[in-house]
User: Fold Hydantoin racemase from Rhizobium lusitanum.
Amino acid sequence: MHIRLINPNSTASMTAQALDSALRVKQHETQVSAVNPTDTPVSIEGGADEAAAVPGMLAEIRRGEALGIDAYVVACFDDPGLHAAREVARGPVIGICQAAVQVAMTISRRFSIITTLPRSIPIIEDLVTDYGAERHCRNVRAINLPVLGLEEDPDEAERLLVEEIEKAKKDDRAEAIILGCAGMSSLCDRLQAATGVPVIDGVTAAIKLAEALVGAGYTTSKVNAYDYPRIKGAECQVCV
Assistant:
């Protein structure tokens, strides 16, 4: 099978890091490739960035469909354009937030999420509700560091994450932690070793879920909601 990881932002180094995380956990026979648009925001921090990133992401999926890609992982924790992506793709499209939440609900009763900036907290809270996990998610926390700061000062990012995980263990009584940004994926193992709590990275969770779905023969339903977008011709134009 061939899984394509799509980083919706235009920072190639972040795409490479997410790919490294994916390659570390994939099955030997699974092919994983990674791409990112070049005309999208350098990081996705809020609804406007999400909206600007979706057209480029959908274009990458359409290119993947022409190549016969079996499944896609959207490597942004806001899961931008996820429903639209599923309309375009034949195979499964996995958002890393949804994948991480599903894993957390499987291996723990209660969990907390730690993201980058406070402005992302309401977005993630809404996603948690959409995914039916509101009762299980104890808190959504932020280390108040921009997404690009994870690369610019990785030591400080790791220090802040360890500190926030310890607070989540004590104050939230969290039994597992989800890292709320694809740019945190390389820190997952070290954070788990330092804190003694299961730490879930959405990139690796999504890759394993994609492998399972493709291996079982599941594809995206094309009945009603996720049917392919209708072709709009000249006859559909509104006359003034």
Summary: The chain has two domains: 2-95+204-216, 97-202. DSSP finds nine helices and eight strands in the chain. The CA atoms of residues 88 and 201 lie 26 Å apart. Residues 2-95+204-216 form a domain with the Rossmann fold fold (CATH 3.40.50.12500).
